[in-house]
Design brief:
The structure holds 2 protein chains of 2 kinds.
Chain A lengths: L2 E4 L2 H22 L1 H11 L2 H19 L3 E5 L11 E7 H5 L1 H5 L17 E4 L5 E4 L16 H33 L5 H22 L14 H37 L1 H16 L2 H18 L7 H19 L2 H14 L3 H8 L4 H37 L11 H9 L10 H28 L11
Antiparallel strand pairs in A: 1-2, 2-3, 4-5
Chain B lengths: L5 E12 L2 E13 L4 E5 L6 H9 L6 E10 L2 E2 L5 H7 L4 E4 L3 H4 L6 H12 L4 H14 L5 H4 L9 H12 L6 E5 L7 H18 L2 E6 L2 H7 L2 E6 L2 E7 H6 L4 H8 L39 H5 L5 E4 L2 E3 L2 H4 L24 E16 L4 E17 L3 E5 L6 H8 L7 E6 L2 E2 L5 H8 L2 E4 L13 H12 L5 H14 L16 H13 L5 E5 L7 H18 L2 E6 L2 H7 L2 E6 L2 E7 H6 L4 H9 L47 E2 L5 E2 L19
Parallel strand pairs in B: 3-8, 3-9, 6-7, 7-8, 15-20, 15-21, 18-19, 19-20
Antiparallel strand pairs in B: 1-2, 1-4, 4-5, 9-10, 10-12, 11-12, 13-14, 13-16, 16-17, 21-22, 22-24, 23-24
The chains are: A mainly alpha, B alpha/beta.
């Protein structure tokens, strides 16, 4: 085998989540009442636009969640196959030109020279202190004067490719358009256009230049930004997974049984809410870090260690943020359990467990879905903050938080190094904004109180 | 009489929905004259409220007026800019809404809300506005106005809130008052008070009243002219007496026939089959044709015009065009009394049932008092018979019903089913007995789990109680059950939201029947339904009783339903039964002053009955009056009423009454003291 697959826990969970979502989608299609709110969601322009924007993030994140170790060149004929200790992902292979081209240190976007002066030995043996040429960025240019022409050529090729793809896409989508006529395909198409116009030239330019510059150790910032996407997705989704059992379980049990059970659960979450969240998370993360450091034998590769930290961070965030959902569900369950169909079930002697699972849970599901959608963006931002203060992900894991943290000191430099933080900011802003907009439409679609009546103009 | 004060001309209002625009009001025209009360009658969804909102231009965001004019004194309200319309609202045309509990702002005092209207539309402000508000409160009969003016909505009862709403509506003497179901949310005795008030104020001030209602009894009491709406159109307009005597449109006729009344005890109630059509599509023929027994070819081909029949009468029916006399069905004679079966075996015996709820206060949640929702209720239910438990909201009738089924734990007393005590049984011990006793709930929209299919809903009870050997056997019964309640077999695979209110109530009945109960507690099963649908459900319940010999405990506030369905009646007031007896005894010759007042307050088609007005409101069951609970409101109260709660006095073999008036007469039969 040319490679050895590595199953990181977060990868497995993430793909499991994808399968579960697909299964849920399939189940919804067969149940009209479950599908109805989603149909409402996907009939709004906002939802379609945000989904179109979220899709590339998702694809990048998933591509970055297939990990393996490549096989090393055989040394002896008879020896067993040995694999590189470096764990790579599909994204790393696809973007290998970005990953491998490391400069010495900072360089500005599209630069051909480093951002710091160095002693350079000239061909005639003299030494000058100047900005040296980059090893990779613009290295193909014989004369730096050609840079603008070369860039324009690449950008123009990118734009042409984008236009071609855009038109091709309209043709591919046609049968879908007929199948689901109510979906605002026009909005989707007009969102894909600008996306392609940005992405295709950037892709072509990245072949020869560092589009977003390089960071302190010379890594391509575009590559770092792409790698950060997976971390955000993992935090945003797996944390809710860790949160849901507590949130749902405590919420409906408190609301249904009332009495001392309710009192107990209320006291627990009121107390938990009174502890500053960051403090609690910091304490838990530091304890977990000590544990990881004491047991190096558990983690054969650095990637696995970093992955464990990421997973634990999700868990820690999960057990500290369930209170909001619990509070919502408790209230809703209190209301539901007074309803007549619950009374009717009591009159039939239906068991409590069955009432909870068959009558209450399906009727609070919309709240769970709304919460999950809203929490996602909040968690992405939380990760950035936690990594910034140093209690977030492993330093080896790339995330928007660690990028910002690394760029922070450079903000006070003269001349300023702005591209690292700007790239992280732009990527994160678009992700969170799209997620927020999508969550809003989900809330409107699922909330029975919001009447989504289209007013004919 | 001069020209019309308010004229609505071919008004068309559309409400945008996901399936396209709903033609909620489709070409409605009528006139309102000064000093007149004009009633707009119809079932829910016929467009009567949307008509009112269109006149006020207060439609929800999704609604828009597509065509028509609303002329107030000749000026078109629909053409006014919004700013000018604001000066009309409240000042010239005012409106009161159905639900007094949500129509008042909870964070403003009553006085403030009335003064707001006064300040907006007249020059008065500050103390002058407050004095005016105080006058208004007195005008609408709120006792102790000086204190009430600084209170908030939550401190007032439903009846008082509706009075405040009326005071605010009348603040600057509007010319037109639109009352949208002003008494639907209120109890009958309070309803009588409010209707009296409206009639009195209208007469005093000479304003025009547009009364929107579904209750033909209210029409008979209040209106001078009547318009009947169906599916967005007016189908009949007439002067009240003409309308009551001989309704012209088949729909109006059916509405009258579906009203339960003593005359119809023997037969089945007339039923309008099907339901109101969806208003999204266009109509080719008559909108009522699908449900009309008299429909012929032309009704399906051609939409009828609103024909002038002379004397201000109009009807939208092809039958009238040919001059055919309306074949109004003869009243079923009341001569054929239902054969009264001999008292059957006692199924359930309730003795001294009490349900008290603790009021807890403070951090340690100590009980500081009790709400005595049910306070010593005794009755017996017999096989195949119906006992109606009647009372106003808050009297504890629903609580009593739930305590019977042990859905609420009784505080004291005994409930014996075929001699076996149920009170105090554990959940597990109760389970084997659950099958025998079931319940049908008031709101068919809340009583079915929206996430379960009909088949699952029906199976749930059977599985839980082990009815049938296995699932295959249970499923075999499902279609049969649906047939029994008059639903098609394909309903099994569908979800509750796909059914109308009446069909949902049928599903609820089938769910109860699934476990073969011998007793069903029906908690106001028709109060959320329209009259025509109510008739369907009542017919169903009665035929089930005749076939299966089920006993019903029928909890209701609607006395006409009682007359149709029940064998015996128990009247509850503030947690206790004040009078008990057979239907004939109690409804024909009520003894307790409360029963008398309750019966007299029900608006009837015949009218002309003296209404016994009760002062004040139902007291709180947390703090009932000393002595007889009813004495503060009782027109016949005596000093001894204050001393102690009167004992139950037997009058005849089947009847008891808890009132001191009958102390001497007890045991001598019904020829007792002062009955009106």
């Amino acid at each position: 085998m040319p490679f050895l697959p590595v199953f990181l826990t977060t990868d497995v969970l993430l793909w499991l989540l994808v399968c579960v979502s697909a299964g849920y989608g399939w189940y919804c299609r067969r149940h009209a009442h479950l599908a109805a709110p989603w149909v409402r969601v996907f009939q709004t322009r906002t939802a379609v636009v945000s989904v179109v924007i979220l899709t590339p993030y998702l694809l990048v994140g998933l591509a970055d969640s297939l990990h393996f170790r490549t096989r090393l060149e055989q040394v002896g004929a008879g020896s067993a196959a040995s694999y590189s200790p470096e764990v790579l992902s599909l994204l790393d292979i696809a973007a290998s030109h970005l990953r491998s081209r490391r400069e010495k240190t900072y360089s500005a976007p599209f630069a051909t020279r480093l951002y710091a002066k160095e002693q350079i030995e000239l061909a005639d043996g003299r030494q000058v202190r100047d900005f040296p040429r980059l090893q990779y960025g613009g290295a193909h240019l014989r004369d730096e004067e050609e840079r603008v022409v070369d860039m324009s050529r690449r950008a123009a090729a990118g734009l042409a490719a984008a236009a071609a793809l855009w038109i091709l896409l309209a043709w591919v989508v046609k049968p879908l358009r007929r199948r689901w006529a109510a979906v605002p395909w026009g909005a989707a198409w007009w969102t894909v256009g600008p996306l392609l116009v940005i992405a295709a030239p950037v892709l072509l330019l990245s072949e020869g230049y560092h589009v977003f510059g390089t960071d302190k150790v010379g890594q391509d910032v575009l590559y770092l930004s792409l790698k950060s996407i997976r971390t955000s997705l993992v935090i945003g989704t797996l944390t809710t997974l860790a949160m849901l059992p507590f949130g749902i379980g405590f919420g409906i049990v408190a609301g249904y049984f009332r009495g001392w059970v309710d009192d107990l659960i209320q006291y627990v979450y009121t107390t938990l809410n009174s502890i500053p969240g960051v403090l609690l998370i910091a304490a838990a993360v530091l304890m977990m870090q000590v544990y990881v450091d004491m047991r190096p034998e558990l983690f054969p590769t650095a990637a696995e260690r970093a992955d464990f930290r990421l997973l634990m961070l999700c868990g820690i965030l999960g057990v500290t943020t369930w209170t909001g959902l619990t509070r919502l569900l408790r209230g809703e369950t209190l209301k539901l359990s007074e309803l007549e169909y619950i009374q009717a079930a009591h009159a039939f002697g239906v068991s409590n467990a069955r009432i909870l699972t068959r009558h209450i849970l399906p009727n609070v599901a919309h709240i769970v879905i709304i919460t999950v959608a809203l929490e996602f963006s909040a968690l992405v931002l939380t990760e950035a903050v936690l990594s910034y203060i140093g209690v977030g992900v492993d330093p080896a894991t790339t995330s928007f938080g660690t990028m910002i943290n690394a760029a922070r000191l450079e903000m006070s430099r003269e001349p300023i190094v702005w591209w690292s933080i700007a790239a992280a900011f732009a990527f994160m802003l678009v992700l969170v904004l799209a997620a927020n907009l999508f969550a809003d439409t989900v809330r409107d679609g699922f909330d029975p109180r919001v009447r989504m009546v289209a007013i004919a103009a | 009489m001069s020209g019309p004060l308010l004229a609505v001309e071919s008004l068309q209002t559309l409400i945008d929905a996901s399936q396209g625009p709903v033609r909620a009001v489709d070409g409605v025209s009528f006139e309102l004259r000064t000093g007149e009360c004009f009633a707009l009658v119809g079932e829910s969804g016929c467009g009567k409220s949307v008509t009112a909102l269109s006149i006020m231009r207060l439609l929800p965001e999704a609604g828009r007026i597509a065509a028509g004019r609303v002329l107030l004194d000749g000026a078109d309200l629909l053409a006014l800019p919004e700013a000018a319309m604001r000066a009309v609202r409240g000042k010239r045309v005012a409106m009161i809404f159905q639900e007094p509990s949500t129509a008042l702002n909870p964070v403003l005092t009553v006085g403030r809300q009335i003064a707001e209207v006064i300040e907006r539309h007249s020059g008065l402000s500050g103390d002058a506005a407050r004095r005016r508000a105080l006058e208004l409160l007195e005008a609408v009969g709120i006792p102790d106005g000086a204190r009430r003016i600084d209170e908030y909505a939550f401190q007032l009862s439903g009846g008082l809130r509706q009075r405040v709403m009326i005071a605010a509506a009348l603040a600057v003497d509007p010319e037109v008052l639109i009352a949208d179901e002003p008494t639907t949310a209120l109890d009958v005795t309070i309803q009588a008070q409010i209707l009296d008030l409206l009639a009195k104020l209208q007469a005093e001030r000479g304003m025009a009243l547009l009364l929107i209602t579904h209750d033909l009894g209210i029409v008979a009491k209040m209106a001078q002219r009547v318009a009947v709406m169906y599916a967005g159109e007016i189908v009949e307009v007439a002067v009240r007496d003409e309308f009551l005597r001989a309704p012209q449109h088949p729909y109006s006729q059916k509405l009258f026939e579906s009203l339960p009344s003593p005359g119809r005890r023997a037969g089945e109630l007339a039923v309008i089959r099907g339901q109101v059509p969806a208003l999204t599509g266009g109509f080719r023929g008559c909108r009522f044709a699908e449900r009309c027994d008299l429909a012929f070819e032309r009704c399906r081909e051609e939409a009828p015009r609103l024909l002038e029949l002379g004397g201000g009468r109009r009807a939208r029916c092809h039958l009238r065009e040919a001059g055919l006399a309306p074949p109004r069905q003869a009243e079923l004679s009341s001569g054929i009394e239902r054969p009264e079966a001999k008292p059957q075996r006692t199924l359930l015996d309730v003795d001294g049932l009490k349900v008290h709820f603790q009021i807890r206060r403070g951090i340690f949640r100590r009980a500081v008092g009790y709400v005595r929702a049910v306070d010593g209720v005794s009755f017996a239910l017999h096989e195949g018979r119906t006992l109606a438990l009647v009372g106003e909201s808050g009297c504890g009738k629903t609580t009593a019903g739930k305590a019977l089924l042990q859905l609420l734990a009784p505080t004291a007393g005994s409930v014996r089913y075929e001699g076996a005590e149920l009170a105090g049984l554990s959940r597990a011990a109760m389970r084997p007995r659950r099958g025998a006793m079931q319940m049908i709930f008031q709101d068919p929209y809340a009583s079915l789990n929206p996430r379960m299919r009909v088949a699952e809903i029906l199976l749930e009870g059977m599985r839980a109680l082990g009815v049938g050997r296995d699932d295959a056997q249970r499923e075999a019964r499902l279609a049969e059950l649906l047939g029994e309640v008059g639903l098609p077999g394909e309903a099994l695979g569908r979800y509750p939201h796909e059914f109308s209110g009446g069909q949902r109530q049928r599903i609820a009945v089938a769910r109860a029947l699934a476990v073969n109960p011998r007793l069903i507690v029906c908690d106001e099963p028709t109060s959320a339904l329209d009259v025509s649908v109510q008739a369907q459900i009542l017919n169903l319940l009665r035929s089930l009783q005749q076939r299966r010999g089920i006993a019903y405990l029928f909890i209701t506030h609607n006395l006409s339903v009682v007359e149709y369905l029940a064998h015996e009646v128990a009247v509850m007031y503030l947690g206790r039964i004040v009078e008990r007896g057979t239907v004939q005894e109690v409804l024909r010759d009520p003894k307790h002053p409360y029963t008398q007042a309750l019966l007299s307050a029900v608006p009837t088609l015949e009218g002309g009955r003296e209404i016994i007005r009760l002062s004040g409101e139902l007291p709180s069951p947390a703090n009932p009056p000393a002595g007889c609970h009813f004495h503060p409101r009782c027109p016949k109260a005596r000093p001894e009423c204050r001393a102690a709660y009167p004992e139950n006095l037997p009058l005849g073999e089947s009847r008891t009454v808890a009132c001191v008036l009958y102390r001497g007469a007890s045991g001598e039969g019904s020829s007792a003291a002062s009955s009106s």
